[in-house]
Design goal:
This protein has 2 domains: 109 residues, Orthogonal Bundle (Endonuclease III, domain 1), CATH 1.10.340.30; 43 residues, no CATH class. Helix content is 54%, strand content 0%. It is built from 10 helices and no strands. α6 crosses α7.
Length: 184
């Protein structure tokens, strides 16, 4: 613990937009370098009549060709449109999602095209500020545990989750330490 910076405040204060925007931003950023993702996110935001990211109705009103021209892939365009539809029809219940148990949040969010378990867990941690999140499938966490325990090989997701049981109900803090162990 003495080798890593202090645990930051969660949820992340800079993320002041809506839950919809937070999830849409996560979709935009998936599997892209930070700079490229930020550029695309800015281009999509510029499609809004105001300074903020487009709202669900605005996203649905935008032609696919316009979103693609902003840099979104076909899959990400479909995912963001699906997110907008499910936000508008109320099936995600984003207004009250913060009051739901972690596993229920994961089950709800993974109904959206392009949002998997890992993305839902990151939403729990960084957006909702949940204190007991351990994303077993995260390679950084696996590598952090390898370093912490002096293992020769990176543990599997299941091994990480089993090892992390002792850190409940503060697995988010343990996640932070494991991530930081992988940073130079």
């Amino acid at each position: 613990m003495s080798k890593v910076p202090p645990f930051p405040a969660f949820p992340v204060a800079a993320d002041t937009g809506s839950h919809f925007h937070s999830l849409a931003k996560a979709i935009v950023h998936q599997q892209l370098a930070v700079k490229a993702a930020s550029t695309i996110h800015g281009r999509v935001r510029a499609l809004s009549p105001g300074p903020r990211f487009p709202t669900p109705p605005q996203i649905l009103a935008l032609p696919e060709v316009q979103l693609r021209a902003a840099g979104l892939s076909r899959a990400k365009t479909a995912a963001i449109k699906d997110l907008a539809e499910k936000t508008l029809d109320g099936s995600l219940g984003l207004r009250s999602i913060g009051r739901r148990p972690d596993q229920e949040v994961v089950e709800i969010l993974t109904q959206v095209r392009g949002i998997g378990v890992w993305s839902a867990q990151m939403f729990l941690l960084f957006r909702l500020g949940r204190q007991d999140v351990m994303a077993g499938g995260d390679l950084g966490l696996q590598e952090g545990l390898r370093i912490l325990d002096g293992l020769k090989e990176r543990p599997t997701p299941k091994q990480l989750e089993e090892r992390a049981e002792v850190w409940a109900p503060l697995r988010s803090m343990a996640s932070w330490v494991l991530w930081r162990l992988t940073s130079p």
